[in-house]
Design goal:
The chain has 2 domains: 10-208, 4-Layer Sandwich (Metallo-beta-lactamase, Chain A); 221-304, Winged helix-like DNA-binding domain superfamily/Winged helix DNA-binding domain (Arc Repressor Mutant, subunit A, Orthogonal Bundle), CATH 1.10.10.10. By secondary structure, the chain is α+β, with helices and mostly antiparallel strands. The chain has 8 helices and 12 strands. It has helices at residues 54-67, 81-84, 87-96, 101-112, 168-186, 210-233, 257-264, 273-289; strands spanning 10-14, 17-21, 34-38, 43-47, 70-75, 120-123, 126-132, 141-145, 150-154, 199-201, 293-296, 301-304. The strands form 3 sheets. The chain has a 5-stranded mixed β-sheet. One of its GO terms (molecular function) is hydrolase activity. This is Beta-lactamase-like protein. One of its GO terms (biological process) is secondary metabolite biosynthetic process. Residues 32-203 form the Metallo-beta-lactamase domain.
């Protein structure tokens, strides 16, 4: 946290995009969850709602007053608490703004209904296209901003560091899809900002080169997988208990997940090892599905199968 650049509570990023921090800085939320208010007219789009901190509701209320605007639709990237926790505060703001019951119900339905892949949301100055990008979570979506040629990446790509994921195969496929969006939409949208290729993450600063950052993420995941493979393949190296179930056939030793983490992430603070273990587990299950690794000792340890090759990423 000490090395992260500070982010103001409210920042106008473009004439039609205002970022409002959720007021929840932390080890995994970085400077806090970013929420975005989009549009130029009296009706705006809101991406994510933070986790319910009073400071976020106060800031949003102030910005809407200054902009003389109301939230027409709120869209959520995924159902983690730091993204949906402010829904109740948003409903309070709708009531305070005197929005009619029918309109409030319509807005609420957008907030809680499942967003369809390819669904569009429009207000003056902003058109968002939702794209289903599972991996971080099964329900994760990103939003392509047609007028600016930019992408709101949710938790799939962050402004600093890397993200966690629940399914590695889905996650990498989604990253590839996200990278392709910039190219697919560049020639079909005529907005003044088309081709900016920025990425607006749910945590951290704006990424100026979205496609470059996504490619970096994909390379990083491949490198982590290769590190796991090479550690499992190690001949002569032993895990902390000295178990050596695989050295006779050249496939290295059997390791527990945390032994792999401590070897691969030796330069990372131990306070982050538990989070890193999730990624290692996902890699091991991917290798298992590909027939390249197997769990032994009642699932406590992992080793390569005979003849397992290099990373497929």
């Amino acid at each position: 946290m000490a090395t992260l650049p500070p982010i103001p509570e409210v920042t106008r990023l473009t004439p039609s995009c205002i970022r409002i921090l959720a007021g929840n800085p932390g080890k995994f939320t970085l400077q806090g969850t970013n929420t975005y208010l989009l549009g130029t007219g009296p009706r705006r789009l809101l991406i994510d709602t933070g986790e319910g901190r009073p400071s976020w509701a106060t800031a949003l209320r102030r910005v809407l007053s200054e902009e003389r605007a109301k939230v027409a639709h709120a869209v959520i990237t995924h159902r983690h608490g730091d993204h949906i926790g402010g829904v109740g505060d948003l409903r309070t703001l709708w009531r305070e703004a005197g929005q009619g019951q029918g309109e409030e119900e319509g807005v609420g339905s957008w907030t809680h209904a499942r967003i369809a892949d390819g669904q569009q949301f429009r207000v003056e100055g902003a058109t968002l296209t939702a794209v289903h990008t599972p991996g971080h979570t099964p329900d994760h979506v990103v939003f392509f901003w047609d007028e600016e040629g930019a992408l709101f990446t949710g938790d799939n790509v962050l402004g600093h560091g890397t993200s966690v994921f629940g399914d590695l195969g889905q996650y990498v496929s989604s990253l590839e899809k996200m990278g392709q969006l910039y190219e697919e939409k560049r020639d079909t949208k005529g907005g003044t900002g088309a081709g900016t290729k920025k990425a607006y993450p749910a945590h951290g600063e704006v990424v100026e080169d979205g496609p470059g950052k996504i490619a970096e993420y994909i390379r990083h995941r491949g490198q982590r997988e290769e590190q796991v493979v090479q550690t499992l393949r190690s001949v002569g190296a032993v895990s902390t208990t000295g178990t050596n179930n695989g050295s006779e056939n050249g496939n290295g030793v059997a390791w527990t997940v945390m032994e792999l983490v401590k070897s691969i992430y030796r330069d990372v603070p131990e306070s982050l090892h538990l989070a890193a273990a999730n990624g290692v587990v996902q890699i091991l299950h991917k290798l298992e599905r590909e027939g390249r690794a197997v769990a032994v000792d009642d699932g406590e340890r992992w080793r390569l199968v005979n003849g397992a090759g290099r990373s497929a990423l």
